[in-house]
Design a protein that fits this description.
Glutamine Phosphoribosylpyrophosphate, subunit 1, domain 1, 2 domains, 8-stranded antiparallel β-sheet, 7-stranded antiparallel β-sheet, globular, binds glutamic acid
């Protein structure tokens, strides 16, 4: 559940997409990647490790593009590796980035293999590219293909997709994983985190679960879960000053106290499927690792000490641990 950024613009978008990835580095990630539409082909660059390594590849290759998608990955299915890094593609024609978890990926993967698709990664995400390709090949446009794919997908997702046959539009979809549009000057952006695009615009549209949107440099169209075109409210937020200023609060601690509901929502958004916390949200193999834990030590001072004590009490209320404060 890491970071997505996508852009359709009248200028080159490679640099702004990578800058957006840098802005989301604070969330933690294991790899990063980008797909840039270049009319005849799509430049596809990925790197295991830091966004800087991806940026180094961009500097070396200098791809030019006005339409692109990019991602920082926090592995849930498949080890952290370049092959598992997003974007994933289907037959060099459809490229996607995905945040979240596809819960029914085993069955969908098998059915796509039966349809002749070859998988290049161990992720749950790659099948989304193949599903879209399947439906596009049946004569659907990308919006319809996305709705058909959504009917198949169980789980949490924010998706951005581009198609080799369309160098002007990209399509995004949201279900239980944050996704918003940003309305810039001569460009429209999409991101999972407003901080990724807060340098480029103050105007945001927060998509709702079930929404699908098509974006070009000049226009966007949003459809709701029933594929009805909808108008969503445009919210004006000065992200750069909001994150660093006290706003109307008397001091920063008061601001942080009032930010708690939103901070908790941002943390758990995309990590809950149905009524349960999703497996693997703490990363690959976390369930096996947690099963071996015999002791938890929380080391903190100041207000963090109080937070640590609350956490210790909660851990012991849902587990066999008894807690001791030293
Ligand atoms: N489940 C996907 C993967 O393992 C996406 C993880 C993410 O949200 O970064 O690649």
């Amino acid at each position: 559940m890491c970071g997505i950024i996508a852009a359709a613009s009248t200028r080159n978008v490679g640099k702004l997409l990578v800058q957006g990835l840098h802005k989301m580095e604070y969330r933690g990630y294991d790899s990063a990647g980008i797909a840039l539409h270049q009319n005849e082909s799509i430049a596809h660059l990925r790197a295991l490790g830091k966004v800087q390594l991806l940026e180094d590849k961009m500097v070396a290759e200098k791809p030019k593009s006005k339409l692109g998608i990019a991602h920082t990955r926090w592995a849930t299915h498949g080890e952290p590796s370049e092959a598992n890094a997003h974007p994933h593609k289907s037959k060099d024609s459809v490229y996607i980035v995905h945040n979240g978890i596809i819960e029914n990926y085993v069955a969908l993967r098998e059915s796509l293999i039966n349809d002749g698709y070859e998988f290049a990664s161990q992720t749950d995400s790659e099948l989304i590219a193949h599903l879209l390709d399947l439906y596009l090949n049946q004569g659907n446009n990308m919006i319809d293909a996305m709705y058909l794919a959504k009917e198949k997908l169980d789980g949490a997702y924010a998706i951005a997709a581009i198609d080799i046959n369309d160098s002007e539009n990209l399509v995004v979809a949201r279900n239980k994983s944050p996704l918003l549009l940003g309305l810039g000057t001569d460009e429209i952006l999409a991101a999972s985190d407003p901080l990724a695009i807060g340098q480029l615009t103050n105007e945001f549209i927060f998509l709702e679960d079930g929404d699908v949107a098509e974006i070009s440099a000049e226009a966007y169209t949003i459809f709701d879960t029933n594929k009805q075109e909808v108008t969503r409210e445009i919210t004006t937020i000065d992200i750069s000053s909001q994150a660093t200023s006290k706003g109307d609060y008397r001091h920063y601690m008061e601001k942080e106290i009032y930010e708690q509901p939103q901070a908790i929502l941002n943390t758990i958004d995309g990590r809950i499927g149905g009524d349960d916390v999703l497996d693997n949200i703490f990363g690959l193999g976390s369930a096996e690792l947690f099963a071996q834990v015999e002791r938890i030590q929380i080391v903190a001072c100041g207000t963090s000490l109080h937070a640590g004590r609350v956490a210790a009490s909660w851990f012991s209320s849902i587990s066999e641990f008894t807690y001791m404060c030293l």
